[in-house]
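Inverse folding, one chain.
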């Protein structure tokens, strides 16, 4: 199921995309799961009967960043051998963890913005994992039990800032990455 966060007539909502329409789960579930974050925390509900939901054509809505109401975005750097080799980096012994801030993302269909202070704007197509419940000390065999879903993720990077100042600074300029739907 594809789920999108969106705005319709100034009201934020979420719901599954079916063909060229989105179903408004946020309106239908406003008492129990008013936000996508609540929906995910509740484990996601079974699909509602479509005749009980408001439906909008995708052209009628504005997409939002899917994680805009989620608590954190944690990224793992140098996790692809080919990408590490391309940059001349040694494969790290332990995961290289960094964070991205929600303000560094734009939603599906919006333009990325290169900051004026740099001409070294790069991109990385990634797959983001949306966690469905808290996880700690999880054994490999049970790892997927904690995943709610996946989304497209463009890890836009300001390389000269990333390499000359800090990784986190180079990854968090406003509107430099994209996510979703």
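Residues assigned per position:
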């Amino acid at each position: 199921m594809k789920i999108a966060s969106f705005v319709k007539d100034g009201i934020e909502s979420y719901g599954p995309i079916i063909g060229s329409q989105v179903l408004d789960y946020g309106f239908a579930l406003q008492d129990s799961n008013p936000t996508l974050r609540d929906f995910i925390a509740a484990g996601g509900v079974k699909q509602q009967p479509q005749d009980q939901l408001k439906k909008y054509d995708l052209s009628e809505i504005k997409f939002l960043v899917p994680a805009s109401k989620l608590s954190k975005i944690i990224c793992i750097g140098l996790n692809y051998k080919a990408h590490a080799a391309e940059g001349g980096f040694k494969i790290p012994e332990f995961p290289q963890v960094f964070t991205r801030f929600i303000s560094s993302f734009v939603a599906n269909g919006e333009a990325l913005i290169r900051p004026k202070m740099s001409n070294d704007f790069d991109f990385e197509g990634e797959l983001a994992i949306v966690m469905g419940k808290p996880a700690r000390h999880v054994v490999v065999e049970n790892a997927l039990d904690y995943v709610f879903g996946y989304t497209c993720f463009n890890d836009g990077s300001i390389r000269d800032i990333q390499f000359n100042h800090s990784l986190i600074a180079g990854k968090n300029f406003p509107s430099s990455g994209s996510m979703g739907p």
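Helices lie at 25-28, 36-41, 81-86, 159-164, 167-171. The two ends are 11 Å apart (CA to CA).
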